[in-house]
Amino acid sequence: MAAEKMSLSKAINASLRTALETDPKVLIMGEDVGKLGGVFRVTDGLQKDFGEDRVIDTPLAESGIVGTAIGLALRGYRPVVEIQFDGFVFPAYDQIVTQLAKMHARSLGKVKLPVVVRIPYGGGIGAVEHHSESPEALFAHVAGLKVVSPANASDAYWMLQQAIDSDDPVIYFEPKRRYHDKSEVDTAAIPGPLHAARVVRPGADLTLAAYGPMVKVALDAAAAAAEEGKSIEVLDLRSMSPIDFDSIQRSVERTGRLVVVHEAPVFLGTGSEIAARVTERCFYHLQAPVLRVGGFHSPYPPSRLEDEYLPGLDRVLDAVDRALAY
C-alpha cells in the first residue's frame, strides 16, 4: 500500500483498526469510545465494525476501567484503554502504579500485562479545568511502565501498533492539539524501535530536544533561527520511559549545547532527568549549561491564559539565544 496522508487522529484510528483485525484478543475500552466514537472521534466507526464485545463503552469510572483491563490481560486479552482526558487519569493512578506496573516484577516475570493506556494530553484546545494536563513525568517515574508520545501521524500509527504488541504496559500519550495535523503514513513500512529518539532536523550549533506536541514548536524555532544563520538540530525524543540517552548524547557531542522543551512544568519534569544525565555523560562536550523550557509550576490556567502558560516560539528562541551566548 502506498503512503497515505492522514491526520494524527485518523492514524490512531487506523492503527486500532489494524490491531482489531489482526488479533481477536485486542479489545478497546473507555468512556464513549463506542457509539460516540470518542469525544475526539478517534475511535469513530470501530464499534460499528467490530461489535460491542470488542469496542466497549464503559461507565465513568477510570479505576474500574483500568482494573477490568488488568483482569482481562491476566486472561490473555490485550486491552487498549482510553482515558478520555489527561486530568481524568488520577482516579486510576492507584491501579496503574500499584497493580499494572508491578505485576511483572511481583510474579518474577511469570505474569505479563499487555495493557495500553491511551491518554489525550496537553493544552492548546481552550478546554476547561482538568482537560489540559501533562502528567507524563508522574508515569515515567514508575518502574514497570513504558511511556511514549508520538509527534506525527506516522509515529501515531506505528508506535501504537508497537505498544499493543508489547507484553509490558504502555502509557500512550496523544498530543490532542496535534490531532488534526497531517503527514504521510506508510502502513506497510518497517518501523524503527519504539523507544528510539529520532533526528527530525539536522543541525550543528545546538540540539533542541522535544516530544509530542512540542516537536512542531521546536521545528518552527529551528526554522526561525536558521533565518539568523543558526543551525539547530531538532531531536524528537518519542519516549519518556525509557529515554534514548544514547541518541541525545550523540547529538550533544556534535552540537555542544542542549535545550529541552516540554509542555509540562519545568520543575521535576522530564527535562530535569535529561539535563542531569546529559551533564554526567557529556560534561566535556558541553559549551553551555543544559537549559529547559516548559510550563510553569502552577495549576494549568483558564483557557484565556493558556497561551501565556504554554512554551511557544518566543520562549524556545530565548533559550536558544541564551545557550548560544555562552
From TrEMBL:
PANTHER family: PYRUVATE DEHYDROGENASE E1 COMPONENT BETA SUBUNIT, PYRUVATE DEHYDROGENASE E1 COMPONENT SUBUNIT BETA. Residues 6-181 form the Transketolase-like pyrimidine-binding domain. It comes from Streptomyces asiaticus subsp. ignotus. Its EC number is 1.2.4.-. This is Alpha-ketoacid dehydrogenase subunit beta. InterPro entries: THDP-binding, Transketo_C/PFOR_II, Transketolase-like_Pyr-bd, Transketolase_C. It is an enzyme of class 1 (oxidoreductase). Pfam families: Transket_pyr, Transketolase_C. Its cofactor is thiamine diphosphate. One of its GO terms (molecular function) is oxidoreductase activity. Keywords: Oxidoreductase, Thiamine pyrophosphate.
